[in-house]
Design a protein that fits this description.
With about 350 residues, the protein is of the alpha/beta class. It has 10 helices and 14 strands. Strand 9, helix 5 and strand 10 form a beta-alpha-beta unit. Helix 1 crosses helix 2 and helix 9 packs parallel to helix 10. Bound molecules: S-adenosyl-L-homocysteine. S-adenosyl-L-homocysteine binds next to strand 10 and strand 12.
Amino acid sequence: MKRDLRSLNLNELEEEIVALDEKKFRAIQIFDWMHNKLIDDFSQMSNVPNSLIDKLSESFMIYPVKKEKMQESQIDGTRKYLFRLHDDEYVESVFMRYSHGNSVCVSSQVGCRMGCKFCASTIGGLVRNLTAGEILAEVYEIIKDTKERVSNVVIMGTGEPFDNYENVVKFIRLLSDEKGLNISGRNITVSTCGIVPKIRQFAKENLSATLAISLHATNDETRRQIMPVALSYSIEEIIDACAYFFDKTKRRLTFEYSLIAGVNDSDKNAEELSKLLRNLNCHVNLIPVNPVTETAFKSPSKEAALSFKNKLEKNHINVTIRREMGRDIDGACGQLRRRIKNL
Ligand code: SAH
């Protein structure tokens, strides 16, 4: 299998090109075509000699990420894209317009092996990791399709980013590269179900990205029932790793908490959650659980969600109820899923 050229950073690209006995500056040209002009076809790289393209193509290709379908929400204009990959696998990505700018939500894997009980993305398990270049191309293709600027990127689509750690870190570095889209780390959020050693490793990467933790429970017993990853890491270990992350990066953390009626939305849960987070610089995002056909979880009423929020606020926890985008096109949190041909 040829390697994905779009996944190389500029240094790596230079090394490859020099190894082919070509001039180093060719790397900057090719990097610019891929990451600035968003071109994924060698034949369009008009200032690059064919002889170099021929040599490069012996070991590399630019992994294609092709728009197969786009659905637009009638409620809020959110767009969900279905992309086809080189091996006929599919991933979904979402484009959202907010007052503070446009945001893209990317998938990091084809499928997911985390098994969270309320999430559609994990049904069918993990197929494969995406390369850094494929994750980038989700953003690039959306920019080309919408002809709009993208100011924020969240790694909150299908997949567990920290289960594809190296590629995701590379993706973040390439996305914030000043010779590429130059999207500041501050405007990139990575969300994890809580893989503790990777949270600690991520704290040391020297990236300014925001870290979001999918907590969804206030005690280990409940968490284990809805998130198998909780069998490996306790909430206490997660909170400790988060404190370490803040210490290293000084970046405020986000906690995602899907409110599920009768499972994690009681007054007691609100008190427990406040207690867990009281010493952390963080923000809580409450997400009334979105419907997934295969599951029976119900979201609490609007009033119950508001009352949960008020309880946290009384305890001085920074909290918002997430404005759900794209529910009518199954584009909201936990609704992205693996598609197969002809769907
Ligand atoms: N695997 C990563 C990235 C996914 S982000 C993670 O777990 O953080 C998607 C977010 O939506 C996660 O917080 C996930 O737990 C949440 N989610 C999954 N299914 C959901 C549903 N049905 N309703 C609301 N949120 C859901």
